[in-house]
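Researcher: We plan to redesign the surface later, but first we want a full-length starting point. Tokens attached.
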């Protein structure tokens, strides 16, 4: 199992993501700098971590989405390789048009950092197969621009296609229809605002995030 974490200038959750991936696979991921043009051969899973890529200048994720490595990420996603974008990684995926919608400032204009309950909307995807539909899990959030937005037609479409992976059971940011996680149409790309890599150890508050990694990486094992 070969995994990769894409690192941008301003990433600050890349090590947390690496720890989670190594804990599940037993193998340290490749840390791929954004200026690279190719992923390591045989990469089975790609993660775009949280942080403040390029200092969130212009728009969160907008500059990172133009990094050279994103072309290889998009090509891999098109071949069916699983791609997980968390927080800033979610923003990058929307800016790169690998997921619909956009992430805007929180409705209260405050940075939110705490554990939140999520409702599992789709338990049939690569990433959510270890959860039950309708189950409530707890995952931390840490964001200032976590307000998911899309026009009504797009929201209707992704809901109708079962592409909403998670919703906030306790809305924290004004997100449209309380959406916390979105899948692409093939189901192999997931963007989510909460941080599953921060919920992998009971000593740190719970393992609900670990279940996501076990599901996604276990399918490939």
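Model: Full-length starting sequence:
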């Amino acid at each position: 199992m070969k995994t990769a974490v894409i690192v941008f200038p301003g990433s600050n959750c890349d090590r947390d993501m690496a720890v989670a991936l190594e804990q599940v696979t037993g193998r340290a991921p490749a840390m791929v700098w954004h200026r690279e043009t190719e992923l390591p051969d045989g990469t089975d899973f790609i993660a775009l971590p949280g942080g403040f890529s390029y200092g969130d200048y212009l728009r969160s994720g907008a500059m990172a989405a133009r990094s050279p490595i994103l072309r290889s990420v998009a090509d891999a996603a098109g071949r069916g390789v699983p791609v997980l974008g968390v927080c800033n990684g979610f923003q990058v995926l929307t800016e790169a048009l690998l997921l619909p919608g956009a992430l805007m400032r929180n409705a209260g204009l405050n940075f939110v950092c705490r554990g939140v309950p999520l409702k599992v909307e789709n338990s049939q995807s690569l990433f959510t197969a270890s959860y039950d539909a309708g189950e409530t899990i707890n995952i931390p959030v840490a964001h200032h621009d976590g307000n998911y937005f899309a026009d009504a037609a797009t929201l209707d479409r992704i809901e109708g296609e079962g592409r909403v992976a998670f919703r906030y059971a306790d809305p924290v940011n004004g997100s449209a229809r309380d959406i916390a996680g979105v899948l692409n149409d093939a189901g192999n790309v997931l963007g989510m605002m909460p941080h599953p890599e921060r919920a992998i150890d009971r000593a740190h508050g719970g393992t609900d995030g670990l279940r996501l990694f076990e599901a996604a990486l276990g399918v490939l094992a």
